[in-house]
Amino acid sequence: SATVRFTGTAGNLSRYVAGSGTQNYGTLEWVGSNYRSAGIFFNATVGTLIYSTPVGSLAVPNGSALGLTNFSVSGGSFAGAKYITCIGIQTDNISTPDSVASSITGDLEYKLSLRIASVAQTVTCMIMGKDAASPNRGSNLAILTNGKLQYSFSTNGTTSTAIASTVGVSAADGALIGIKVTHDIDNGAAGHDVKFYTSTNYDPVAETGTWTQLGTTVTTAGALGSLYDNATATTVLNNGTANTSPLLGRIYRAKVLNGIGGSVVVDCNPADYASGLTWTSSTTGEVWTANVS
Predict the structure, then answer these.
(1) In this predicted model, what pLDDT tens digit does every residue of 179-231 receive, in sequence order?
(2) At a CB cut-off of 8 Å and minimum separation 6, what does 198 contact?
(3) Beta partners for residue 14, in sequence order
């Protein structure tokens, strides 16, 4: 059987023959009269697990694989870390069910280690969040087409407020970066504050690195009593609905903190993955599922 692999270049996908190229995002494998896309996959020393998704021919749409694979991070202190990657299926994501711990109604913080294929995405791309359609609106983090980060939140579950960073992320395509957003729902001065940060040396294992604020603090008049406690899952890559687009890139770690600099209550760590489509967080105990179409 023939294998065709795909690679990402500046946010796009291009086909190449197995063995040539270095950025493997997924595979197609000939099965009978159809091709099917790879789901969870590993490097050649571990083998490949395929889930069946017939697509009919080599004219594969932009994005058809959700993968979790071993990767050595050059120059990183956590070389050999596993990562999650998604290349376009809108309903594919990693999720963990709603829980008491993940239902944050006060100050919160998102903190991630990731590679973005291009900070100039062609559409607004979801990174992570606990958000769904009304009446389960919540919070999420996305990157806009201009490279700015956007944090959205809800206080009632039916409407959502979006706040963008004042400047865009400055990073080379595919560079390993840290991203952080904090939401202080009552800044003590009759308002609430959202701050965005990036890091070029964030190590999510040792929790070390230098954070630089991205642009200026976005302050909105009116302190918030609380954020809405919805009943939806926390998702990494997108919220699993057809009206959002997942990030084109790789996520090495995704954490949610209850409070700014507070306790980690959700921890999506691909290093915890062993086999199948689910794994349990070794630090916070929640079960993660790879939802693949």
Answers:
(1) 999 999 999 999 999 999 999 999 998 999 999 999 999 999 999 999 999 99
(2) 169, 170, 171, 177, 178, 179, 180, 211, 212, 214
(3) 7
Give tens-digit pLDDT for 36-49. Answer: 333 322 222 222 22
What is the reported pTM?
Answer: 0.77
Q: Report which of 117, 7, 15 is spatially closest to residue 60, judged by C-alpha positions.
A: 15
